[in-house]
Design brief:
6 helices, mainly alpha
Length: 173
């Protein structure tokens, strides 16, 4: 029991190297990733709604309105992902999870921008196709980063420690 938990934790931390392992990973994350995608679609609606309101009614420039809308969306998607996608991960404080979520999401923005630059600027792909593909790249980054850094890895270690203490208790008895 302890050995299998330790192996599972190492596999999560170091990544997968086999096709069978990748298949198991996809099966294990299918429901969670689906919820993450739904939250992301809601986030797109929030971003567009906030941007339209800030630009049309608030008369803000698009770039400033988009920046404010993005932060509003990050707060919204964090709240939804915290409540729905990773509702079983409460081992860090809310403030720490929110800070990590912000950092991971900014990394996702960097992935998106680098990807769209590469696909449209360097490879010549139409900018809308590049944007769609880049959104997928950012989504994978955000899901993986949030799963491991914001909501995940520590629980794995805690489970290992709990399993070790149970193993020690059972051998002592």
């Amino acid at each position: 029991m302890v050995m299998s938990l330790r192996i599972e934790c190492r596999r999560r931390a170091s990544g997968l190297v086999t096709a069978a392992g990748l298949g198991a990973l996809l099966r294990r994350h299918r429901g969670r990733f689906s919820r993450f995608v739904v939250v992301g679609v809601i986030g797109v609606g929030v971003t567009n709604g906030l941007l339209a309101a800030l630009h049309e009614w608030g008369h803000l420039p698009v770039l400033l309105g988009g920046t404010i809308a993005s932060e509003g969306t990050i707060a919204t998607t964090f709240a939804l992902n915290n409540a729905v996608t990773w509702n079983d991960s409460r081992h860090r404080s809310l403030l720490r999870r929110a800070g990590r979520y912000q950092l991971v999401t900014l990394g996702g923005l960097a992935c998106y921008l680098a990807s769209i630059w590469l696909l449209s600027g360097v490879l010549g792909l139409h900018y809308l196709l590049a944007a769609t593909a880049s959104s997928g790249v950012a989504a994978v980054w955000n899901y993986t980063g949030n799963h491991l850094l914001t909501f995940g890895l520590r629980r794995c270690r805690a489970d290992t420690m709990r399993a070790r203490s149970l193993a020690v208790e059972s051998t002592a008895a």
